[in-house]
Amino acid sequence: MTEPTCPIETRLYENGKAIAEDFAYDQVAGLLEKHPDAVLWLDLFDPGTDDLGLVAKDFHLHPLAVEDAVVDHERPKIDRYPQHVFLNVYAVDIATKDSTTQFGKTEISVFVTPRALITVRKSASDTSKFVTRWDADAELGADGGGVGFLLYGLLDAVVDGQYAATQRLDTSMDEVEDRLLEEGGAPRAVRLQGVEQRKLLAALRRAVAPMPEMVGQLMRADLGLVDASMRPYYRDVEDHAQHTVDDVDHLRDRIESLLQADLAEQGNSLNDTTRKLAAWAAIIAVPTAVTGYFGQNLPYPGYEKLSGFLVSTAVIVSVSVLLYLYLKRRGWL
Length: 333
Known about the structure:
Layout: E1 8-14, E2 17-21, H1 28-34, E3 39-45, H2 49-59, H3 63-70, E4 77-80, E5 85-97, E6 100-112, E7 116-121, H4 128-136, H5 146-180, H6 188-208, H7 211-218, H8 231-294, H9 306-329
Parallel strand pairs: 3-7
Antiparallel strand pairs: 1-2, 1-3, 4-5, 5-6, 6-7
């Protein structure tokens, strides 16, 4: 075997325990032959076409699946091929800092062959989550779980990460909710934060929505990936995935309701302001109408003098500027 040029990680598992790790790619064939009951985990980070072509030749991977593994932003899915199963999933993460919510996701393409689990990561991510999960659940693979055991650990870590991201977004939304429901409507920055969270939820849902169905398909008997001992654990992953989807849908409805409530509060505040202005206009209209009807034009201090003209002009300008600044500060202009 020729060595791929991209960074790789390797581990060999037998009966749920790692018996070799961080070995070169050219040792894979010998180790699999030496340990007929062992299964391989091979991870490739951002491989090129030649790297995947090498692996595809050695493990008989279908060209269409290899093409999907190279192209970015493929939708989450599962495809069956004669020699293997292909999955595309997203590991997601949400971090909140300084009232800003940041969303990150790592696209992972997975080839499931009879004796190897091959993962292709298209962006940098922490693979220790998978390794830790496999090591912690080593007893699950002791009964000959094989590749199904490795696939379970991978999916469990991905789904748990999706659920944790949903919970962090839920917590972040609590703060937005309190500020969106302020009297008179929330400031524009808060509304923009709510809109941003709505976008994040849409992106998160695209990653998590297909997961329950994908896990359910993996448990089909004709695939032969999940034996009776592993089936309850896959059902647990499926249940967690469905719970995550339900929470995301709930959060989408929640943020939509909050934005609508804020819009209604802005309308109420505008109506209140309009009512006040109309009341003052009615009050001012009475003396204006009376004096206008009778043509009243009474002398004032400085009448028919230059000083009077300058004083009246200064009063008009000063009152207009003060009124403008007041209305500007209240956000009416």
